[in-house]
Amino acid sequence: MTARSTLAALRAAVLRAVVLPAVALRAAALHIVALQTGALEAVAPRVARRAVALLALAAAGAPATLALQSGAAAKSAPEALEGVLSALGVEPRDVGMRETDLAFMVHERPRSELARLLMTEPLRADGLTRVTGQLLSAAAKSSSPDLLAVVSRFNNRTVRRGLIGDPIEKFKKAAEADDALASVLRALGAADADIRAAADLPASVRRAAALVLLTAQEVPPWIKRGTRGAPTEFWIKFESKLREPLKTGEQEEKEEKEAPDVDYNLTYKRAAEEFPAEFVMVAAQDVVFAVEEAVRSLKADAALSSATFSYRASTRFGWVILAGSGDDVHAFDAPEGPDAAAKPRPESQTALLIIDTGGGDTYAQAGAAFSRQAPVGVAIDLAGDDTYRAPAANVASFGAGALGVGVLWDEAGDDTYEADRRALGYGEFGLGLLIDVAGRDVYKSIDSAQASATAGYGLLVDREGDDQYEAYRMSQAFAAVNAVAALVDLAGADRYVANDTDIRYPAPQSKEHNVSLAQGAASGWRAEYVDGVSVNGGVAILLDGGGDDTYTCGVFGQGVGYWYGAGLLIDLGGADSYLGQWYVQGAAAHFAAGVLVDRDGADRYDARMNMSQGAGHDLSVGILIDDAGNDTYQGSTLGLGASNAAGVGLMIDRGGDDRYETPAEQCLGWVNANEAYRSLFRSYGLFVDFAGRDVYTVRGAAGAPAGYAGGASAAPGRAGAKDGATWPTPANDGGPNRVIFGYGVDRP
Q1: Most-buried pick from 612, 630, 685, 745 (CB within 10 A)?
Q2: Confidence of residue 593 (pLDDT cuts 50, 70, 90)
């Protein structure tokens, strides 16, 4: 029998029994021909064997069931995606970056194992994000030390201080003594008059303050251990640079071109990459254990809700401020009182500890550390609608740790947080944590805030309420080198805005939009064209627990990675809206991973420029997964499951009647041809819609939404894309050395 007659016979048999995608049919026939001609090595064996088995069943008249399931079956079967890929002739285990390819293309440096896992095994993203969401949600609800333990894993420096025993048990026992607060204040260098005055405070406040201060004394040695790797001169200069004014993007670019501080920049890179963040994490977990215990004991004292008192003491690590139920203003530039000159003068605007039991309070700085001389700051506010507003000159504020540990805990009230930069869950060579337990809150920043970190940890937890987050860049879960940033909002209809109308940080991709690097964005430092020292990025996670949320950004945002960073946005429910421009909504560039997962609700996705909604560029992995709901996708070029320069783009919609408004080409399961070395690497652009009655239209045509960069178009839609169809990338081939795999699949 000739090869041609073999293929014809098999095709006829299959058409009588089961419908297969044409590519699987071709692969199976090719394999059988190879068996007859002895050219078995000319095909991909695993793929062909699977297709041959299906064809044999069909030819025998037996029922054959592919894992191309529809409806509820597709949602419930964990093998559903693997089945679709196998039927297309794609071996599921091969989807992803090869370690050898990555090693060849980019230098081996310390990197997050989470990023590596997502890049090499992207089909595990669904399970990884599901478990990550569960762990972060549970810990954020009940145990902040557990939350810190979870995030410590993401930069390969796992610390679990509460695994065996209570790490602060000795401090709890010591804090029970009547003179515990007086003793620790004396050890911290407080004035005698201030030590005596502490005896008049409520007993519960004395115990809580003593516990936190006793634990805080353990922080400086851990910070000292963490900073041994760089010379003292570097840290002195680093602290001075923290005090430089906030710059616009144009000012930064001009400064870097005219007078780059090459030696400092190189030392900073090495220090950040090599910083032993586990030492900071040890200190931070102990402090958070103490804070949680202090909050529990204070809440148990019912009398505090109406108690009035005011106490201030200056120590060598900053102010200790304890206040009752009044509306207080906490600003503290210098020691006060008749003997002020004799008191130790801490860093300007530094508070070691603030406890305020009630009232509508105003803070200029709280829960922040920003020098080796004052490496810890804790603030606890139990009640009231509070205003946290930092002066522009502040170095760090409100749950910020630069060269230290900063923790801010607000238990209740509709609060407003405003700070230009380095605030609201910020860490740099340190850890910053902000926890807001209840209320409708507003968070406003410009740069490096709202869960942002470099060489350390930045965390913001909001447990309930309809909240509003506003920033410009490197915020709302942003991680740079050797860092983990996590913004966890457990409930409420929330609004996340990375400002893209006031252009202060214009993007190289489009000067009409800001570089956002926000809402689950992780980035390393790419410098092969500058000083040659590129450093890998960290891990950023924005987890929203539910509610009808809105996400808006410019360039780089909403689950995005750059230069070995791993950025994740996980939304667990609600009818959500996503708007972005370029590299958004599950996208990545240059050896990185970006993931957006939305678990439920009728959602709207709008990406207006390029590389979006499950798009990978240059050996990167971009993934968008939507589990349920009648969704609308307004896509871009290289979007909705697209690959460029040997990337992996994966877009999965598991259920609902969906609408896809896209350009005519380069989307919906697309792979661009590669050049040079990248032409040797496998590329995957995969789009799969498992269920529902779906509609595909051309974006920019009459009646389509305004704002699409391509403008009006009367061109036909993506070739072959329609409900119940399968379509390949035009450049796809079925040859023996296939490296391009671009497919769209819509199951009715």
Answers
A1: 612
A2: very high
Q: What is each CA distance from 608 to 357, 578, 661, 665, 705, in whole angstroms?
A: 48, 11, 11, 15, 10
Question: Could you tell me the two tokens for 349?
Answer: 């605007």
Provide the token pair at 409: 């805990």
425 against 9, higher pLDDT: 425
> Over 60: is that where the pLDDT of 709 sits?
no
Q: Give the residue-averaged pLDDT of 217-221.
A: 95
State the angle between helix axes of 277-299 and 203-216 in degrees (0 to 180), rounded to the nearest 10: 180
Tokens of 673: 């041809």
Q: How many CA atoms lie within 13 A of 607 on its CB side?
A: 30
Give yes or no for residue 341 having a pLDDT over 80: no
Using DSSP's 3-state secondary structure scheme, residue 418 falls into strand
Contact 708, 634 (CB under 8 A): yes
Task: Name the β-bridge partners of 604.
Answer: 577, 632
In total, the chain counts a number of residues equal to: 748
pTM above 0.70, yes or no: yes
- Closest by CA to 311, choosing from 200, 413, 395, is 200
Residue 25 has pLDDT above 50, yes or no: no
Structural tokens at position 565: 């960073």
Quick one: what percent of the chain has pLDDT higher than 90? 72
Q: How many CA atoms lie within 13 A of 646 on its CB side?
A: 21
Residue 290: CB atoms within 10 A of its CB come to 27
pLDDT at 207: 98
C-alpha gyration radius of the chain? 28
Per-position DSSP letters for 241-292, written without gaps between them:
HHTSPP--HHHHHHHHHHS--HHHHHHHHHHHHH--HHHHHHHHHHHHHHHH
